[in-house]
Amino acid sequence: MPPTSPRSIRSLWNECGEPMTSFQTVSAGGLEVFYREAGKPGAPKLLLLGGFPSSSHQFRNLMPALADRFHLVSIDYPGFGNTEMPDPAEWDYTFDHLAEIVDEAMLAIDFTGPMGLYMQDYGGQIGNRLISLHPDWLQWQVIQNSNIYEEGFTEIWDGIRRVLWVDRNPQTEAPLEALVEPETVKAIYLTGHPDPTKISPDNWNLDLHFLARPNARRVHLDLFYDYRTNAAQYPAWQRRLRRDQPKTLIFWGRGDIFFTPAGGEAYLRDLPDAKLVRLDSGHFATEDCLHEIVDGINSFYDEIVK
C-alpha cells in the first residue's frame, strides 16, 4: 500500500473546516502497518485500541466525532484489517508481539508522551502492555468491554480457557473454529444490541473478508491460545490500578457475547473513583451508543482530566 502524501498526512481537516480521517501506513517490525489518524497534531492525544474480530474500522465513526478536540490514532494489528499478515508458521502471533509492533509504530509516527488510551476487548491486553513499557504515557483511560477480571468471562470462553489452554491440539482447536465462522462473527456484532437495524452489516462483512485470507484462522487460533498470558497478568494489572489510580472512564455494553456485566463492575473494586457507564448494548457499543460515548468522553475530559 503506497504511503499517503505528506500534504494529506497532516491535512486532517477539509476545506470546509470539517474533521477528517486519514489512512496511512508505517513500517514497524518489518511490516507495513496500517493506521487511521484524525484531529489536529498538538491537540490532546487519544490512542484507540480495538478488538476481535475487527480492526481500526470499528472506530470509523468515533474518530471524526472526537476530532474537533483530540488528536486520534488507531492502528491495525498484524493479522487484522489492512496491516500485513505474515505467515504464522514464521511469525509468532502473541499479544506480546502485537504490542511490540504497536509500540514501534507509535514511536515511528511520533505519537508518544502523555495521552488517553481507549481500550476495547483485545485493546486492553495490548494497552496494558504499552502502559507497562511507558507508564508516563498514561494520562487517562477509557475502558470499553475490555476484561481483566475472572468474573468477566462469559460461557463462550469455556472451550478456550478450560480445554484449549489445558491441552492445545487439533481436537481441542477444532470446535473453536466456529468463532470465525460467518454466523458467529455476525452474532458478535448483534448479541446484546436491542435494535439490530442500527448495526451495519458492513462490519461483519468486512471482518469476514479479512478472515477469509490464507492463514487467518491459524492467526486467530494462535491468539485464542495466547490469551492465557493475558489472564496470567490480570492480578498484576489489577495491582497497578490500585496503586496508580489512573483517571478512568468505563463504558460497558451489558449484553456483550464475550464479557459479563460483572467484568465491568469489577473495575470499581480497584478504581473506586472511576466512572462506570452501563450501556444497553453489546461488544461493539460504538455502533449503537456512539453519541453517549462521545458525550461521555468529552465531559469526562473536561471535568476530570483537564
Shape: globular
| Total separate domains | 1
First-last Cα distance: 38 Å
Reading the helices and strands in chain order gives HEEEHEHEHEHHHHHEHEH
Helix content: 25-40%
Strand order of the largest sheet: 1-2-4-3-5-6-7-8
CATH superfamily: Alpha/Beta hydrolase fold, catalytic domain
The parts where pLDDT drops under 50 for at least 5 residues are 1-15
- Count of extended strands: 8
Give a quick account of the main beta sheet: strands, pairing sense, barrel closure. Answer: 8 strands, mixed
Q: What's the rounded overall pLDDT mean?
A: 94
Q: Quote the CATH topology.
A: Rossmann fold
Architecture (CATH level 2) name: 3-Layer(aba) Sandwich
Mind telling me the C-alpha Rg?
A: 18 Å
The CATH class turns out to be Alpha Beta
Total helical segments: 11
Strand content: 15-25%
Structural class: alpha/beta
Organism: Kribbella soli
InterPro entries: AB_hydrolase_1 (IPR000073), AB_hydrolase_fold (IPR029058), Haloalkane_dehalogenase (IPR051340)
Keywords: Hydrolase
Pfam family, one: Abhydrolase_1
Structure description:
With 306 residues, the chain is α/β, with parallel strands linked by helices. The protein has one domain (21-305): Rossmann fold, CATH 3.40.50. It is built from eleven helices and eight strands. It has an eight-stranded mixed sheet, with helices on both faces. Helix 3 packs across helix 4 (122-133) and helix 7 packs antiparallel against helix 8. The longest helix has 29 residues, at 216-244. The relative contact order is 0.14. Keywords: Hydrolase. This is Alpha/beta fold hydrolase. GO terms for molecular function: epoxide hydrolase activity.
